[in-house]
Structures are given as structure tokens and as C-alpha cells.
Amino acid sequence: MARPDPSEVASPSLFLLLSELRVGAELAQHFLRGLGVRGLPRGRGEPVMVIPGFGASDINTAALRRALNQLGYEAVGWGCGRNMGMRPQVRDRLSQSLRSLCEERGQKVTLIGWSLGGVFAREMARHQPQCVRRVFTLGSPFNGHPNANNLVKLFALMNPKMRGAPDMDGFRRRIPAPPVPCTAIHTKSDGIVSWQCSVETEGAQIENVEVRGTHFGLPLNPQVLKVIAERMAADAG
Question: Is residue 197 in a domain?
Fold first, then answer.
């Protein structure tokens, strides 16, 4: 997929934003059926780290990690509390956690990042590719324009030092994919992040996969788990 023109990418419409209320139905379906691990390929104890989105914590990714553990992987959270944006101490802790997990397990780690967590995962892989097997991003805003989402005002409120015009040079440097296999999972009905901002420029080891559902429901989406399980099994093969 070609890189979107930043001037043509806007925040999701009010209709799409309101459609995020469908996450209630997605939650109900999850409580009734779970994520559905039956029939999915299994892992062999490979380490996985799941990074939550802005305003979320490991609690919000527990269902996805539980499903991955049921499939035979060793999935852990990021262990940094609620994600309120990147801080120096968070950056250092993530770097150390990734390095330790890789060394303890004796193999590379798969990173899964939801929303802002996917931006973090890509940068971790960019700076420590020797520790990363693959990156999965779920509705993550790493392309297009940094303001093409419906959380930009809340993010600025929680990060007063980052108010004002966005750092476009820094943002552009983060657009190219890191030097590891990357799968960008997105939904065109995303009401939080413009879906065009969540797609990679496809290449030899870079792909985009569309699923149905809401932005808030991506960690509970059975289609997301299926994509992850199939790609991870192929990596192991």
C-alpha cells in the first residue's frame, strides 16, 4: 500500500467515532465466546510482549495475552502501568524488559502493540532489532499525520510538554518500518485513528491486514488473534 498524503488524511468522522460504542457488543461476544483459540496453530513457548494503547494498561490486553498463552506462547504485559505517552523512564524500562526477556528465553521476542503501543513496539524493534522476531501493530498511528486521530487533544492534555505544533521531522523518521517483519492490522471502521495512518508501505517482509470491528475492540477481536497466530506459526516454521 502506498504511503498516504498527510494533507489528505483527517481524523475519523463523528459517525465513526460514535460507532466505537459497538465495543459494548464486542465485549459481550467476548464474554460469551472468548477469543476462540480452537483450530488455531499453536506455539512452542515463544516469548511475546503486548503493549497497551494510550490510556490503557495490561488489564486491557489481558484477554489477548491469555489466549496467546492458551496457544502455547509465553505472553507478558509491558509492566509500565497505564500508558500515558512515552517518558524517559518508560523508554528505559521497555528497553531493559525486551533485552531481559530475549536473554532469559534465548530467543527473539514478538512485539504486539495496540494503538500507541504499536508505535512504541516499532521503535523498540528499530533500536533493538537483534531482540525482536516480529512486530504486530493494532490500529497504530505511525503514518499519515500525527493529528489524524480523535485522541490528540486528550494526549496533549496529559502531555503538556508536547503541546503545540507536532514534531513532523521526528514523526517522518518513524514512518519507515523497522528492520524486522511487520504486520499492520487495521480496521477501516476505526473511529479513533484514521485507518490510513495505521498501514505500512508494503515490502518483502511488511504487510497490512484489514479486519472488521472497532478500534477499542482490537485486543478482543478473534480476527486479530487468528492473524497473529498464523503469522507466528509461519515464523516458527
Answer: yes
Let me know if residue 215 belongs to a domain.
no
User: For the stretch 5-40, what's the b/e string if a residue is b when 16 or more beta carbons lie within 10 angstroms of its beta carbon?
Assistant: ebeebebbeeebeebbeebeebeebbeeebbebeeb
Question: Does residue 117 contact residue 64 with C-beta atoms inside 8 Å?
Answer: no
* pLDDT tens string 185-221: 999 999 999 999 999 998 889 999 999 999 999 999 9
Q: How many domains does the chain have?
A: 1
Place 29 in a pLDDT band, splitting at 50, 70 and 90: confident
DSSP string, 47-95: EEEEE--TT--GGGGHHHHHHHHHTT-EEE---SSS--S--HHHHHHHH
Q: Are 139 and 129 in contact (CB under 8 A)?
A: no
Residue position matching grid coordinates 492458551: 70
Domain extent, residue 138, equals 8-52+63-104+116-202+224-236
Rounded to 10 degrees, the C-alpha dihedral 226/176/170/112 comes to 20
